[in-house]
Amino acid sequence: MAKPLILPPNLTQPTPLTMVDLSRPQPPVKADPSPSFIAPHMMGIRTDEEFDTFMQDSKSSNKTAVVEFGSTWCQKCHEIFPTFYALSKKHDQLRYAVAQVDYMKERACGVRFSPTFAFFNAAGRKVDEVTGKDPQRLADHLWLHSD
Questions:
Q1: With bands split at pLDDT 50, 70 and 90, how would you rate the model's confidence at 107?
Q2: Residue 23 domain-assigned?
Q3: Residue 137: what pLDDT?
Q4: Which of 43, 45, 65, 77 is labelled catalytic?
Q5: What range does the domain containing 113 cover?
Q6: N or C: which end of the chain has fewer CB within 10 A?
Q7: For the chain, how many structural domains are there in total?
Q8: Nearest-angstrom CA–CA distance, 120 and 145
């Protein structure tokens, strides 16, 4: 029979990870809740209001939106970003955004893995999702949702 793990007094049991750590510093409140530009065809989203503005713009342009939900500390997010960026240029009929879940309160609640690529149809409904950093799966889903 295995002995139970006894930690030294200066160590504590690890706590489960939380999706969004609201104790972290929040970005300054902007007067205009529009997303920031990462590139001419890709937006950066850090708040729920910016996400809502991006989705409203996607609805008005009648385009499918692809949002990468990730965080600054996620190594896999950093590794897949160059591929995501290159694929976004190839499939230019879609709208693209990168959302930082650390600063979002409500819109990132369903995100369980980092990175998560969520696909929203022109009506704003989530229709597909890709998790992880597999470039071929991401490329396949982008091709599938391209018109």
A1: confident
A2: no
A3: 95
A4: 77
A5: 36-145
A6: N
A7: 1
A8: 10
